[in-house]
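To: structure desk
From: M.T.
Subject: fold request, one chain
Message: Could you run this one when you get a chance? Sequence is below, nothing fancy, just the single chain.
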Amino acid sequence: MAVPDNTGECRTSLNILRECGYSEGLCQLLNTDSETGIVGDAADLKRRQTIFGKHKIKMPKIESFVGLLARQFEDANVIVLIWAATAYLFVSLFSSNRTAFVESLTIYCGLLFAGLISALCDWIKERQNLALK
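Reply: Done. Structure tokens follow.
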């Protein structure tokens, strides 16, 4: 494995190991005995935690339900349907039929219902994925 340093040259793992003094230097850097290795008893673990700190994996944050819901309306087909429903609603305001606007409201409700179901499924999926990690 090659690791670039600040001079732009690539340093291989073997070169890095050579710089720290091979296994003796690595054991010294890790504060470990080369004969016994890591003991693993309570005193050794506490000593290592004070030297190196606790090993914690930062869990990723899941997106909020509102963010997932907003993302459902970014699809090009959904945007076209929203524009079409809005245009139909505008035209229906000048129609002689008093219930012409109901069709555009039906499109809005259908899009909202589909978005809610899809966002809920994505939210549950992200929570399950986080629980597995």
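Reply (cont.): The two ends are 28 Å apart (CA to CA). Let me know if you need anything else for the meeting.
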